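[SOLVED] Need 3D model of a two-part complex

Original post:
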Amino acid sequence: MKAKRKKAEKIFFNSEKEMPLAPMSVGSMSFNLTGAWRNIRPVIDLNNCIQCGICWKFCPDTAILIENEFPVVDYDYCKGCGLCAEECPTKCISMVEEIK
Amino acid sequence: MGNHALSYGAMLSRAQVISAYPITPQTQVVELLSEMCASKVLDAQFIKVESEHSAMASLIGAALAGARTFTATSAQGLALMHELLHWASGARLPIVMGNINRAMAPGWSIWSDQNDSLSQRDTGWIQFYCANNQEVLDSVIQAYKVAERFSIPAMIILDAFTLSHTYEVVDVPDQSLVDAYLPPFQSAFRLTPDEPHAFGGLTSPDHYFELRYKLQKDMEKVPEAVEATGREYEKIFGRYLGAVDAYQVDDAEIILVTSGTAGSTARVAVDLLRQKGIKAGNLRIRLFRPFPFALVRQILSRAKKVAVVDRNISYGHHGIFYQEVKSALYGLSSVPVFGFITGLGGRDITPETFEAIVNYTLAKNQPEEEIIWIGVKQ
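Solution:
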């Protein structure tokens, strides 16, 4: 299943006058698809998922979304760190080598 | 003492978050503030930290959440904060900090010189150098006013021991008057769950340049704002604090340029010289960053000779105020500028020091050395 997340537009200011004072919400991370950095990808076996939400809570990149009450990986941003697989209490997430 | 003047300044400004690590000669600033917080005289969060780096880091978080913040440090402690000084100004957080000028080690020293704060020249902080303890207290209140208006952090700088540990009578203004002068901090932007933002994130070459341009453009407005807020302060409290403090300069042929407490000693020398018929004057630079170019040019270009007295050195170059004054006068005036270095590591600066400086300046048409050292044991 592919995660359905609304992708933000790249933020681009044409003039310094439009810009905030401080570097805030410059939008760099929404268009920066860090999923390309990944060597191993988490694959969730939903048959053993108990819907505890731990993977969603632990993901440092908020790359796990809850859709229809089950976790879905957003591969556009998941860097493949494996934290979700490590923390999953039923071990239903396995890290699989990326084949490009 | 100057240290307590800083604490009272922070108290009257109603600082909401204070985070600091003790270091001689600054320790009493923190000591008194922690007592004030414990006894609820000051309603502030006091965060104990394990280093100056953490002190500044925690204030960056607090200021981002919209709190008025205060800390104080000295020498090696300030150097340890260096990375986060850039962060505070880049994130446009009006943190106010006291720094007691203490010589950098080694040799280990607790005595005064300005190399610690002047090493932070390019971090994007406003810097005020104080001449007495009343000015220390007043400067904290004024610094919040200016810093919060432009979202730029500010440093109040005072000499170790000469101010930090010396008792003087200081008028502690009425809280209600300070409240009228300095309303609660309204931050231009804020870290809040109601309106989520990411702060300080990766900023591409598309935008970084403009953010720095905006910081500089706002910095350039500070000298005038210091004058204006100083006048406003004078109306309420009867004491004026400007970007520079000039003494007997109107008809002066020789002007001694100083900063910090050396200015008071220079004025003793100016009076002695005037008794001898020499038209001397003193320009004390209070605001070092941003540099008050217009005022410095206006006052110094009238003089026949200018002698800059530095209690600091940029190794391989000159005294740092000397560089600044020369750059301010470049192309505008042919007045010879003499650069003196004295008082490093807390070596006393006395009227005799100024006598030697004035004698040299009077005797020569032009400085004969890049640096004229006063007081080196030969």
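Edit: The longest helix of chain B spans residues 208-237.
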